Every structure is written in structure tokens, then in C-alpha cells.
Amino acid sequence: MDKTIEHKDYLFKKVYDYVLHRIERNEWKEHEKIPSVRQLAFEMNVHRLTVLKAYQLLKKHDKVYVKDKAGYFVQSIETKHLENLNQSNPIVSAYLQKNHLSEIHQPAVSYQFSQALIDSNLLPNHYFSDYVKKVFDLYPKVLATYSTVQGDLELRETLTQYFINQYKTHISADELLITSGSQQAIHLIAQTFIKPRDVVLFERPSYSAAIDIFKAQGAQIVTVDIHPEGYDLQQLELYIKQYKPRLFYLNPTFHNPTGYTVPIEQRKKLVELAEHYRLLLIEDDAYHDIYFDEPPPPPIYTYDSAGTVIYIRSFCKYISPGLRIATVICQSSLMNALLTAKSLADNGSPLLNQKIFLHYFSSLRLQQHLEKIRIALQIRKEIMEEELAITGWRWTSPKGGLNLWVQLPNNFPTELLLSKSFEQNISFVPGQVCDPLKQLSSWIRLSYSYANEKQLKEGLKRFVAVAQSLSK
Amino acid sequence: MDKTIEHKDYLFKKVYDYVLHRIERNEWKEHEKIPSVRQLAFEMNVHRLTVLKAYQLLKKHDKVYVKDKAGYFVQSIETKHLENLNQSNPIVSAYLQKNHLSEIHQPAVSYQFSQALIDSNLLPNHYFSDYVKKVFDLYPKVLATYSTVQGDLELRETLTQYFINQYKTHISADELLITSGSQQAIHLIAQTFIKPRDVVLFERPSYSAAIDIFKAQGAQIVTVDIHPEGYDLQQLELYIKQYKPRLFYLNPTFHNPTGYTVPIEQRKKLVELAEHYRLLLIEDDAYHDIYFDEPPPPPIYTYDSAGTVIYIRSFCKYISPGLRIATVICQSSLMNALLTAKSLADNGSPLLNQKIFLHYFSSLRLQQHLEKIRIALQIRKEIMEEELAITGWRWTSPKGGLNLWVQLPNNFPTELLLSKSFEQNISFVPGQVCDPLKQLSSWIRLSYSYANEKQLKEGLKRFVAVAQSLSK
């Protein structure tokens, strides 16, 4: 039996290598059609499943691509990082499958300016294990127990108290839902409130994963521009009256990707508009605590008395990505609908993660840790701004968050910049990916949060050199 | 500011108590309409939001219910545990919101025969914390790191090797997806493959949460009965030809709720039917390792060469419910579709949970632990069967799994048995809940896995007494 398995594994690898070698030796040229599954199976005297598996892996490694019903073709070197889904815009499609992209490119890219993640060295990894051990002492049966759908009551009460203290808002633990990260929160909201062809309002630009999620639900997206000073509220009101959107998904504090923060007066006005037009506001506040000089204005949610705001607060990025904990706050009738969706989706987030998070969140060390992160990120932001100064490109220096949103000169060849950067082991996010309308091709998002200071300097010098070579 | 918050909390509680007292003193009788939100707000001189919150909590505690646009009414005592969603069948609707039910009833119910969970005292809680500490030593940055969408490669490779060793199947780590429990796996599959009005085939009876999930996707459900010896394959084939279902959701090993196991000859035939009619088989195998005498037949999935089976293997129930880890196995083109859904749903399960699970799964202690669980559960099954012997009710003694599926005499008042049992602090699952056709009202599911031996004996004696009082 063992021989049979080894033999099958050997055959699979044999097919894979056979195809790869011919591609690498240029026996099969770029965009040339390779033998069909059936053909190669016959030629190599192996099972079709074996060839199919090898072809799937070659496709996943961007060595070949599939054209509708025409078969498999050799991938070209330039577009090999970009073409994967047969979509019309390869840059966009590549990033729309962003995790797929990171699986492909992560090992290869030394200068990572595309993922808005915090350098793991800035997180207090050593102390985490202390908290975890404490959790097991406090709750010996934590691994044997399911959480409720809504989330651990102790955690919800702790978070409730936190929000009451911070913002003088009055909410109760019943109005909180614990989700497995903000992605899940957005997805549950989209599933619960959006049916195909519902109109949803988005900022432009916005968070690409949220764009994907609402589109997957069949939503039609109408956009309102976000500026350093917020929105054009008159324009916003016109759109609301004209298109009657079901909801407005917004990220008004250290906005991703722009870094802009919507001022207080607008926050109050937004709530009034929402109540007047019966519009749900979905406030995604993932970057709230990552401020440089002073804390940002209170969440829009704290100005809401009519129950039109659903507030998403993720703690993942700067506390513990590996735990995946976020909370949603909203009034009861909205909460009941979300609970149904959550119960179908996974029946409750894992209890262990909630308890670990609870204890770390409640600790003094968290505050010290956040302080250090703020300082470290501000330094990195400044390094990035120094390195980019020579280009003459324009950006608004953000007061918090993880990214610079940079405007390239008109007609700058952004796609080429992307592929040349990849060749130099550098990644960033093209503006198109953050645009529901898929334009904004003169803009790029550069994250300063992931690379360390040395990598930032080296990588940005290289990046600037690549850009300059394209400007001639 | 603090005074204001305390005052608001006080008002909320005041309204809640006010209404509750009147109901308990019978000043407001069962099914009587209570004051509207606006009315009571005016009477008590509080904000409408305060009254609304109090009413929502009363509704959640089953003290009042809402009738369409008519307002709030006092809940009756008999149906108070059952009515919550304005659905036509209260028993079914109560259990369809099963977690809601457990939140309401868990504290009150001493004899828990409704939740197919394993007594946490049977799980090796003490040793878990050792494994967790080990994980932090091995992966110091585990909390600072996201998992990929598909799941930790090391875990997938370990599980792949496990399946290869167990079943002599040949799969690769690419064909595994890690999900946050089997609930999420079923949900992702429903979202990916089912559009409204697609027909899906279900066993009858089946797993109630799966029924809910597919119905929520708009599926039309066609059922095929499951018997102690499996299915009527001729009938099955007729249904497939007639209704052309997209998929067949099945649980062929220690089936929930019946405990039946589909024999090997049928497993092979099912795969042939699936391939012939291009039917997807969704094999949910959550109870595979909970066998009493000998291991069950290999999964249907191991007979599949055409890629028509999607295999779900959850380890939650008997390894660690608190971690929520399951794996899905299927061929690449199906996997790619699931990956898109998973990436939208939550972008990957938490890494910490996967690493903890990986190390525990790979340990010797797991085998010893499983052995103990099997023995303990077999003893509990036998205790339950002994206690029920006196009733003359009929059931097929299961060879594994967590439940007895018991047939009551014709016309037995099952609803009344349920409410009288609740009064005696006993819970079980009425057969209707497990039936896609919402009949099977003479059947009940009793789980022997949660209560300890003493609680089993006491609780079942009480239960039998209640049942006997209803037979007269």
C-alpha cells in the first residue's frame, strides 16, 4: 500500500516537473498552448487526475493560466504575478485575491509596503504567553467550552465598560457582538442587510475587501469622495436622495487608504442625515487607537441616538492579529438580525481567543504597548516621507493609521511601476484596487507599518530609483 | 457625567421591573396587550429608547412577545419557552434558535439531554494548557501573525498525512481547508454552491443547523429517509433523476440524530451515483472517532476518484470545542471556489487555534484521551438505555456517536412532554426539529454525552416519570 502511495506522489511530481522544465527551457513559449490534460495523461501513461493536479499546482504557481474552454497556456514572465482570474484588469484581479497574492509573493518580496499590517516585532509577543497561561489558570475548561453566539459575556461587559468610560456613551453588553475580526463583521452586515441590487454608499477610495464583500452580495455601489477635510455633505445628501442607499460603509478615522479623519461637525451631521433618510451607517473604526499626536474625535456612533449606526471596532491590527477579535455595537433590533447571521455562519467565535483577548485588553501593559506602537509608527511614517520627498509626489501627511496615500503625476505608468517593483522585491497597493470605480490609477497606497526602519530606508530608496527610471 | 449614566441605567431597570412585576402579579394577563413604547415612555417620563430597551430584554427573556405591528403582549407560561420568532411552529422555532434557547435555559436546566456536546469533564483540560505553552515556545510570534485563508500549512500537512495513513487515500495539503468549526464549513459550502431555488437532498431526519443553513440560502429541500441499514438506493436514484439536486448533504457515520451508519457497499454506490448524475456529496463526518466496539467504515470520500465529494471533518466535539477547528477536503476546482468564500467570510481562521490544535492532534495523549472518551460514552449510553427500558419505547442502539433516537408511541403528546420536562429541569430535542419536513413528532433525540453518570440516572428517572404521567 505504501508503495502505491509513493508511486502516485512520484507520478504527480513527475508531471509537474516535466511541464515546468519545458517552460523554463523555453521549449514551450509564453502564451503557447500546452497539451490538454487528456493528451498528457495519455502520453505519460498516467491518470488524468494526476495531470489535472499537476496543472492546478502550476496554475497556482503562475506558470500556466487557463483560457475559458481553450485549455492551458504558458504564463508570460511580466504578467505572471498579475494574471490569475481571467479578469479584464490584471492588477485589480491580482489584488482582489489579496491573500492569494500574499501567498504567492510573500516569500519573494523583501520590501513589503502593500499589507497594512503591523511589524510583528512591535507587538509584545513575549508578554502574550504570560496572559495565555493566566487564562488557563482562571478558566481551566476554556478549551472544552463553546462560546455563545453573541460572544463571551465577561468580554462584552468589559468592552462595554471601556466604551462607556472612553466616550460617555450609554450602551449595554446586549448591544455588543464579538466577531472573528472586522472582515467577518462586514460580511455578516452585508449578508444581513443587503440583497442583490440594493444600493450601498461607499467612500472613494475605500477598503478593498469591503468593496469585494458588498459586491459579492450583489450590491450596486455609489461613491462619495473623501477629502482631507471630510465629505462634501451637500453632494452626499443629493446622492442619498437620488439613489436611496440602504447603507453607507465608512471609515472616518485614519481612513484606509487615505489617512484622512472626518471632523466632529460632520460626524454629527452624518448622524442627522442618517436618521432623516433612514440610512444605516456602518462605521469601521479599525485604526482608532493608532494616532500620533492626539486622540481622534469620538466615533460617529457616539452621536447616534436613533439607532442608525452599526459600529465595528477591530483590535486585531495592533493588539493581536493571531486572535482575530472585533466587536460590533448596535441597537437591539439590528443586533438580533446580526445574531441570526452569526449563528448560521459559525455559531460563535472561539471562546479561547475571547478570554485571552479579555485579559490582555484589561491589562496595564496594553496601554504601554500602544504608546510604543504609536511612537514607532510615527517614526516610520516620517522615514517614509523623507525618502519620498525627492520624488515631488504629493500626499497629505496622516495624523494616524498605517498608510500614505500618494498621488503620482498624471499619466504615470503605474502598472509598469508595479511590475518593475515586484522584480525589485518591492510591493505596494495600486490605487485602482481601493477604488470602487476602478480608476484612481495615479494614486498608490504605501504602508509604513510592516517593514522595519532599515527595510523602509533601503526599500524606499530602491522604489524611488525604479520610479525615477520610469519618469524619463 | 457618571451620574447621568447611572441614572439612565437606573431608569432602564425601573421600566423593566415595572413591567415584570405587573406580569408576575397577573395585573397584565397572558396574551394581554401591554402599553406601547410611546405610551409607557410618556407615563413614566422616560425616553422612548429606554422603554424600547426594556421591552427588548423582556422579549428576550420570554416575558412578552411582539405581534406584527400590533404591539407587545404578555407571554403565556406554557409556551413561554417556545415562542420567540412569530413562526408557526413554536417548538421548531425555539430550537431553530438553539443557542438562544441555551442562553435562556442553560442555567435552569439541570438535566441536559438536548445538546450533543461532550461533558467537559471528559476532556483533558489539564493537559491542554501544557500544549498551549508549548505552542508559544515554538512560535513566539503566533499572536502577531495572521493565518492564510486556506489555513496553516503545517497543520494541513499534518492532517494530510493523518488521512493518508488512516485511509490509504491520496490527497495533498492543497486539498484541505481549515475552517472555524463544521458549522462554518457547511455555511461556506451552502454559500458557494447554492443559489435560491436550487434543490438539495437531505437525509430525513438530519442535523437541524444544516437544515437552517441551506434554507437560509433559499434551497428547496428534498428528503430521503435514513434507516439502520442505510438508504433505499433505488428511491434515492429516482429522486436524483426527478429533482436534479445540486448536492446531497449527508452524515453517514454515527448519523446525527439517529446514530445509524451507512454500510460500505452503499458508500461505493453513492459515489457512483454522484459521479453519474454530477451530484455533489457533502459528507459531514463529525462523529467518526466516537465508536464503541470497532472503527466505522472508511469515509465515502475515500471511494471518490471523480472529485464529487466534499468531506467535512470536525474535531471540535471530542478534542476541543473551545478551539473550533474543522477541515474540509475536496479537489482543487471546488477548493478554489470555497477559498473565495472563506476569504470574504473572515479571511482565514485564527492562527493560534490552528497551532494549538496541531500540537495536541499530533500527541500520543490524544489517542489515550479518545480511548477514555469512547469507554465513558459507551457506559453512559448503556445507563440511558437501562433507564429507558421500562418505557417500552423503541430505538436502535447506536454503535457510536452521542445520541439515542427514540420512537415514542403514536399520538404521544410530545409538545407537552417538552414543556413538562422543562418544568422538571430536563431538556431534549423534539424530532420535528431534526426533520426538514417538520413532522417526525413521535421521535425524540436524547444525548447521553453531556450529563455525568449521576445526572443521567437521576434525570432520566424523572424524565420517565414525566412521560408516564402523560401516558395515562
Summary?
Chains A, B: In the C-terminal section; belongs to the class-I pyridoxal-phosphate-dependent aminotransferase family. Chains A, B: Its cofactor is pyridoxal 5'-phosphate. Two copies of one chain form a homodimer. Chain A is α/β, with parallel strands linked by helices and 472 residues long.
What does this structure look like?
- The structure is a homodimer of 472-residue chains.
- Chain A folds into three domains: 72 residues, Winged helix-like DNA-binding domain superfamily/Winged helix DNA-binding domain (Arc Repressor Mutant, subunit A, Orthogonal Bundle), CATH 1.10.10; 123 residues, Aspartate Aminotransferase, domain 1 (Alpha-Beta Complex), CATH 3.90.1150; 241 residues, Aspartate Aminotransferase, domain 2.
- With 472 residues, chain A is an alpha/beta fold.
- The first copy, chain A, has 16 helices and 15 strands.
- In chain A, the strands form four sheets. Chain A has a seven-stranded mixed beta sheet, with helices on both faces.
- The longest helix of chain A has 25 residues.
